[in-house]
Amino acid sequence: MQHHIDNKIFHIEVLTPKQNSQKLDADLETFAEKYTKVVDAGYIVCITDNPMGLLSFQATEVIPELELPVEPEQLVIHLNTFHTKEHLDEILTSAADMGAKYLLTLSGDGSERLPKLTPEMLGIDCNTVTSVELLQYIHKAYPNTFSCGVAFNPYEPEEHEVERLKRKLDAGAEYIITQPVIGEDPLVAGLKQYGVPVIVDAWMSKKLHLLSECVGYEIPEDTPYDPIDNLGKLQADGALEFAVVEEYVITERDMFLALIGELGRIYCVPKRLTKEQGGFWFTEKLEPKKKMPKHDIFDVGVKQLGSFRSNG
C-alpha cells in the first residue's frame, strides 16, 4: 500500500451489479468497462461489498466470470461482517486463488436480507463481530495471505473512534482509509502518528447531501459545495496522501481545467498519453462530438480543431 502513496496512485471505487438487477448483462458489461479503464489507467480498483445493505454480486464472483485480469497491486476488495461463515470462507478462498492481496475489512452496512457473522460462527468469545474480529479471523484462518486495511470515520465521537482504530491496528490492520473528508480535519491529519499508510477519501460529487448518513446529520440538498476546491484544500493542508475519488462526470470546461490544475500530484501512466496531443485524457468520450477549438484547453499541446473530451 505504501507503493500506492509513494507513486500518488488514485483508488477508484467500482460497484458490482445488484443481484436483483433487471438488466444484468448490461450491468456486467458496464462493470467490466469501468474495471478495465481503471486498471489500464494505472489506478487501483476498489470493489465494494453490498454497499448500503443492497445485495450485490461479490468481486470474487464477477471478476472470474468476466475473465478480468487481476493485478495484485491494483485491486482492493471490500469485505464486511454481513455474511454467513460459509460464504465468508468462499469469498476469502476465491480471493486468494485469484491472487488478490488487499482487503478493506469493515463492519459494514446491514439489512434484513443479509445474514450477520456471529461470535459462535468464528469460534470467538465476544458480544458481536465487528471489523476487529473479522481481521483477527482472516489473519488466523488465512495467515500471510492478505494485507488488510480498515476504515476511519472522523464524524464519530473522537474518543470512541480513536479507541476503535487502535483496536483495529492491534488486530493487524496495515493501512487506513477514511470516510469522505470535507476541508481540514485535525483527526485525519493526526492519523500519521500511527505509522501506517493513510488514504484520504475526497468527495468528488457536488451532491454533498448524499453524505448525510455518513456524517450523522442532515445536509440540505441545496448546500453549495465545490469538490475541486475541497480537493485543493486537502492537498494544501497536507492531509491528502492521495485520494479515493468517487465516480462523477465533468461536463463543464471550467471545472475540468480546475481539476487539471488542482491534481498537481497526479500519477499518470505514460501509455495513456498520445503522440498527437500534449494533454492527457481520463476516459473515453461518451457523448456526441462537439466541434470546437482546442487551443484554449491546454497550456501546451497541439492546437487543432477537434472534440474536447470532458468526461472523466
Approximately how much helix is present in the residues?
25-40%
User: How many beta-strand segments?
Assistant: 10
CATH architecture of the largest domain: Alpha-Beta Barrel
Low-confidence stretches: 247-251, 264-312
What is the fold named in CATH at topology level of the largest domain?
Answer: TIM Barrel
CATH class of the largest domain: Alpha Beta
The proportion of residues in beta strands is 5-15%
Can you tell me the number of structural domains? 2
Morphology: globular
Average pLDDT for all residues: 80
| Number of H- or I-type helical stretches | 11
Q: What is the H/E string?
A: HEHEHEHEHHEHEHEHHEHEE
Global structural class: alpha/beta
